[in-house]
Amino acid sequence: MKLIVLTAALAAALSARPARAQDQTFSADNGPDSIDVSKYPKDQQEAYKLFAQKCSTCHTLARPINIDYATPAEWDKTVNTMRHKPHAGISEDTAKTIENFLIYDSSVRKKSLLAQKEKAAGSASAAPASPAPSSAASAAAPATTAASTSSSSGAGTKN
Question: Which domains does the chain have, with CATH numbers?
Answer without folding.
Answer: 26-32+40-111 (1.10.760.10)
